[in-house]
Amino acid sequence: MRxxxxxxxxxxLPVGAAVAQHAGHHKASDPIAAAIAAPSRTAKNVARxxxxxxxxxxxxxxxxxxxTVVEYAPSGxxxxxxxxxxxxDHGTFYALQPTGRYLDGYKTFLAExxxxxxKVKLVPFPEETASIPxxxxxxxxxxxxxxxxxxxxSQAATFKAFxxxxxxxxxxxxxxxRLPEDRDTALEKSSxxxxxxxxxxxxxxxxxxxxxASEVNANPKDTADWPxxxxxxxxxxxxxxxxKDKYLAIGESDRMTLKFRKPAK
Length: 265
Prior knowledge:
The protein is α/β, with parallel strands linked by helices. The chain has helices at about 1-30, 30-35, 45, 50, 55-60, 80-85, 100-110, 115, 145-150, 155-165, 195-205, 245-250; strands at about 70, 90-100, 120-125, 135-145, 165-175, 210-215, 255-260.
């Protein structure tokens, strides 16, 4: 009785190995997952993945390794750590960074790992925006930046620049802190939160069509009524040790994830 059992067990081994090999191949064949797993990412940024959901977010926006992608205001490079390796071999990655202290900081960020970021095309905004050819970009992404535009009253010009650089049919992906629709609109100038309707109006005024929304970056624990606005919550924790455990338990902000399209000709 032992011989047949041993033969049967031996016959099953290649099947198990094949399944494991298939699973490994499936993971390796997912370019977004591979970019998120890149060893060049910093531990501090990886720790925020549960709040920022990069795999689901980039998939929702339809980002692929062969696209031409613009990230507006990459700041410290959180998403650039993913987008640069994703697009390095077969795509094009523009970092459209507003001039000022963040531009200098981003230059330092790129210089620290030239083997990863040597193909990133850094474009100071707005001075050199025209270096990105009109109608040449597949996807424009901006993460938690539209509230800054609204506070500076620069949203109309910035969204128009996005529109001009995108190909007909190209995608604009926006993530930002969400203000409930029944709140006072005046809060958008100081709290860091915006209404979905506000961003939709800004995009549509620039010529974009609304495609849809994802709740992947939602956080129902965030009531959006904090003493120092969105910066009360992590990662900023503007109140420092005051109610720190409370804010850490809430986590990062409730965020809208909105997809727009430049109309096809």
